[in-house]
Design brief:
heterodimer; A: 401 residues; alpha/beta; 7-stranded mixed sheet; 6-stranded mixed sheet; 11 helices; 21% strand; B: 290 residues; mainly alpha; 2 strands
C-alpha cells in the first residue's frame, strides 16, 4: 500500500511540474536565447532577472497581503528563433503552470510570445522588446518596462542638434522589426530637426562585410551615422567604419556598443555612442529598491560581471512585478494587472508608467533613454554619459575619428 | 567614379577570400562526391584558432595562419574517419546528413564553450587611400595570401605525386585503386586539405571582421554559391568565381540597395545552375573544344 502511495505521489509530481512549486511559490516562466544570435543580450537580461529572484527569495519572498511567496523561474532556450517561442510559452503556461511570464529578448520574439500570453490571459512583463507595434493590438496583459523603439534615437538626435545644426545623416540599419521601427521614428525626428538624410539603407541581419555600404556612406558625404541593429552586426560595422576611415564625426549604433565586450574593438570603439535604456552612472532617486549605484555594485560583487542595460532591464521587470503584487496584496492576475495599470514609479532604472489607453495598453510611456559614448579615460576605454544634461558625466566628442 | 572603382576593388579583395573558402568545399566534392556541411563550422574553427593564438598566446596574426592550417588538416582527417568514411559510396543524402549532424555537434559545442559573444582579432595594417576611400591593409593582405595559398594548392595538385594521386582518385577511383593508389588514405588526405582550406580562410576572414560562433553559416552559404558558379569539383573555378562574385557585388552596390546583392547572387546561382551546370569555367572548356 505504501509503495502504491509513493508511486501515486511520484506520478502526480510528473503529471504537473507545479508540484515543485508549493502554494507559497510563484512560478515565473520565460524563454531565453541561450543559443543563437541573440544570446549575448538575452543572457544578460536573464542574469538581471535571476539576481532579482535571488534577492527576493533571500529576503523571504514577495509579500502579498499576509502571505509571502518565494519566486521560482522556469526557463527554456528559444534558440533565438521565433518558431520555438509560441510552443515554449504554451508549455510554460499549460505544463509548467507559470502564473506570470517574462518576455523573451528582442522585438520579433516578443511579438510572437505576446500572442500566447494574451490567449491564456497571463501577465507578461517585457524587458527586451522595444518595437511599439506589438503594444498597439489591444493587449490586456502585456506590460513594456523599457522605452519604446520610437524614442531610441531621440536622444542621439537631440545631442547632435546641440553640436551640428546641419548634419548630414546616413541611416544604415538591420532589416529587422526593431531596427526598422527605430529608424522609421528617427527619420521623422531628424527631418524635423532640420538635418539632411544623405543615405537611407537597410542590410540583411546576416551581413558580415559592410565594405560596400561604407563606400556608399563615404560617397554620400554624410558626417553622421545612425543605425545598426543587434550585437554582431553593430560591432562589425564599428570596426569597418574605423578600418575604412569613414569621415564621420558622429556615430550612434544601436545595442552593440552597450556591451562591455565592445571595448575589445579597441580604437574602433572610440567615439561610438549608444542609446541606452540604463547606465550605472544615471542618478535616479528610486521610490523603492536599490539606487543605480547600489544595483551596479551589488550585481558586480555577486556575479563579477558589469551590469549593462539588458541586465538592468531584466532586474526591473522583476522589481515592477514584485511592486505590483505587493500593491495588489494578491497574486490574482486581474488585481496585479490593475496594480500595473495604476503604477507610476521611479526605480533605479528610471521612471516607468504603462499606457492605459485600450489602443496601446501596456506600452511604456514614461521611461527615458540616455546616450553613452566610448571615450578614453586614464588611457583605457570607458563608457561616459553624454546626454541628457541631468545624467552627463562627460562632454560629447563630436569629431572625425 | 572613384566610388565605383573603390567598390569594385573592395569586392574583388573580399571575393578572393570567399573563393579560398569555397575551394575547400569544391575539393572535397570533386574527390569524393560529398557535400561537406561542416564547412561553416570549420571556417569558424579557423577564426577561433587564430583568435586563441593571437589573443591568448600572443602569436603574430599572420604567423598563426600556418598552425591554424595544419591543425585544420588534422581535424579534417579526424572528421573524415568519424563522419564521412562510412558514407563513401552511399547515396549522397547519407553524407549530407552525416556532415550536417557533425556540424550541429560542433556548433553546439562552440556555443557551450564561447556563447555567441563577438570576438575580435585586433589587427591593423596600413592600407592605401584613393581620394576619400580607404582600403584596409588587412583586406589587401588577405587577398595576397589567398593567391599564395591557391598557388600552393595548384602546385601540390599538379606537380606532386600525392597531388596527382588526389586527381586520379577524383577522376576514377576504381582505376586509381587498380594502379596501386591507396584511395582511402587519399580520400582522408583530400578531406583534410578541404578542411584546412576552410580553416585558413576563416582565419583570414577573422583578420578582417569580428566574428561569433555562428558566423560560419553566412560564409558557408556564400561558399556554396561560389562553388556552383565555379563548377562543382573545380578548385581553380572556385577562386575565379569568388573574385567574379565580389566583382558583381562591387559593381551592383553603388546603384542599388545593398540588401539586393543577396538577390543578385542567388539569381546568378540559379541561372548558372540552369544554363551552365558545369560552372563559369565550363565556358572556357567549351571555347577550347570549339
Amino acid at each position: 500500500m505504501n509503495k502504491l502511495a509513493l508511486i501515486w505521489a511520484f506520478g502526480a509530481c510528473f503529471a504537473g511540474s507545479a508540484c515543485a512549486a508549493g502554494d507559497d511559490t510563484i512560478t515565473i516562466g520565460m524563454t531565453v536565447s541561450q543559443t543563437g544570435s541573440l544570446n549575448v543580450d538575452s543572457v544578460a537580461q536573464l542574469k538581471g532577472a535571476e539576481y532579482w529572484r535571488d534577492e527576493v527569495n533571500a529576503a523571504g519572498g514577495i509579500k502579498a497581503g499576509d502571505r509571502r511567496y518565494k519566486v521560482r523561474f522556469v526557463e527554456y532556450d528559444d534558440q533565438s528563433q521565433g518558431g520555438r517561442v509560441q510552443q515554449l510559452y504554451t508549455r510554460l503556461i499549460v505544463q509548467d503552470k507559470a502564473q506570470f511570464l517574462f518576455g523573451p529578448y528582442s522585438s520579433g520574439l516578443t511579438a510572437t510570445a505576446a500572442v500566447i500570453s494574451e490567449q491564456y490571459g497571463r501577465i507578461m512583463l517585457i524587458g527586451g522588446g522595444a518595437e511599439g507595434k506589438t503594444y498597439q493590438l489591444g493587449n490586456k496583459y502585456l506590460f513594456q518596462c523599457i522605452t519604446t523603439a520610437d524614442y531610441y534615437l531621440s536622444g542621439a538626435i537631440q545631442a547632435l542638434k546641440e553640436k551640428e545644426a546641419r548634419a548630414k545623416i546616413a541611416f544604415v540599419y538591420s532589416d529587422d522589426p526593431f531596427s526598422k521601427a527605430v529608424v522609421a521614428a528617427a527619420r521623422t525626428q531628424a527631418v524635423a530637426a532640420g538635418f539632411t538624410i544623405a543615405l537611407d539603407e537597410s542590410y540583411a541581419p546576416s551581413t558580415t562585410d559592410f565594405s560596400p555600404i561604407i563606400n556608399k556612406i563615404i560617397s554620400s558625404g554624410a558626417d553622421t551615422f545612425l543605425g545598426g541593429g543587434h550585437y554582431p552586426d553593430g560591432a562589425t560595422l564599428a570596426r569597418q567604419l574605423y578600418d575604412q576611415k569613414a569621415p564621420l564625426k558622429y556615430v550612434a549604433i544601436l545595442v552593440a556598443p552597450d556591451s562591455p565586450k565592445f571595448a575589445t574593438l579597441g580604437e574602433a570603439a572610440l567615439g561610438v555612442t549608444v542609446p541606452s535604456q540604463w547606465e550605472p552612472q544615471v542618478r535616479y532617486k528610486p521610490d523603492f529598491g536599490p539606487t543605480p549605484e547600489e544595483f551596479a555594485k551589488a550585481y558586480n560583487a555577486k556575479t563579477k560581471l558589469e551590469a549593462d542595460y539588458h541586465t538592468a532591464s531584466g532586474y526591473v521587470t522583476g522589481l515592477l512585478l514584485q511592486h505590483a503584487i505587493e500593491q495588489a496584496g494578491s497574486i490574482a492576475p486581474d488585481k496585479v494587472a490593475a496594480a500595473l495599470d495604476r503604477m507610476d514609479v521611479t526605480t533605479f532604472f528610471g521612471r516607468d508608467k504603462f499606457s492605459t489607453d485600450p489602443k496601446s495598453h501596456g506600452m511604456q510611456v514614461a521611461h527615458q533613454m540616455v546616450l553613452a559614448q566610448w571615450q578614453k579615460k586614464n588611457g583605457s576605454l570607458e563608457k561616459e554619459m553624454v546626454w541628457p544634461d541631468a545624467a552627463r558625466t562627460a562632454s560629447l566628442i563630436f569629431a572625425k575619428h | 567614379m572613384i566610388g565605383l572603382l573603390a567598390s569594385i576593388l573592395d569586392g574583388v579583395l573580399v571575393g578572393a577570400v570567399y573563393g579560398l573558402a569555397a575551394m575547400g568545399i569544391t575539393l572535397i566534392w570533386g574527390v569524393m562526391d560529398v557535400v561537406n556541411l561542416t564547412h561553416g563550422a570549420m571556417i569558424v574553427a579557423g577564426m577561433f584558432g587564430l583568435s586563441l593564438l593571437v589573443n591568448a598566446a600572443g602569436v603574430p596574426a599572420y604567423a598563426a595562419l600556418l598552425p591554424v592550417m595544419i591543425a585544420g588538416f588534422f581535424a579534417g582527417i579526424a572528421l573524415y574517419w568519424i563522419a564521412v568514411h562510412r558514407m563513401i559510396g552511399q547515396p549522397p543524402l547519407m553524407s549530407l546528413l552525416s556532415t550536417f549532424s557533425a556540424n550541429l555537434v560542433l556548433i553546439g559545442l562552440g556555443t557551450a564553450v564561447w556563447g555567441t559573444v563577438l570576438f575580435n582579432v585586433p589587427l591593423s595594417l596600413p592600407g592605401f587611400s584613393i581620394g576619400r576611400y580607404t582600403f584596409p591593409g588587412t583586406h589587401l593582405m588577405a587577398a595576397a595570401l589567398t593567391a599564395v595559398i591557391a598557388g600552393a594548392l595548384y602546385l601540390f595538385l599538379y606537380r606532386t605525386r600525392t597531388g596527382k594521386a588526389v586527381r586520379a582518385v577524383s577522376g576514377n577511383r576504381e582505376a586509381a585503386e587498380l594502379v596501386g593508389i591507396p584511395t582511402t588514405r587519399i580520400l582522408a588526405l583530400a578531406f583534410g586539405l578541404g578542411v584546412a582550406l576552410a580553416c585558413v580562410s576563416g582565419a583570414l576572414i577573422a583578420t578582417m571582421f569580428p566574428f561569433t560562433v555562428l558566423s560560419g553559416d553566412a560564409y558557408q552559404l556564400k561558399s556554396f554559391v561560389v562553388t556552383v558558379l565555379g563548377g562543382l569539383g573545380n578548385p581553380t573555378g572556385a577562386l575565379v568565381a569568388g573574385i567574379a562574385l565580389g566583382l558583381v557585388e562591387g559593381l551592383a552596390t553603388p546603384f542599388m540597395p545593398v540588401s539586393w546583392t543577396l538577390v543578385i547572387e542567388f539569381v546568378l546561382f540559379v541561372v548558372v545552375l540552369i544554363a551552365l551546370p558545369g560552372g563559369l569555367m565550363s565556358l572556357r572548356i567549351r571555347r577550347r573544344r570549339n
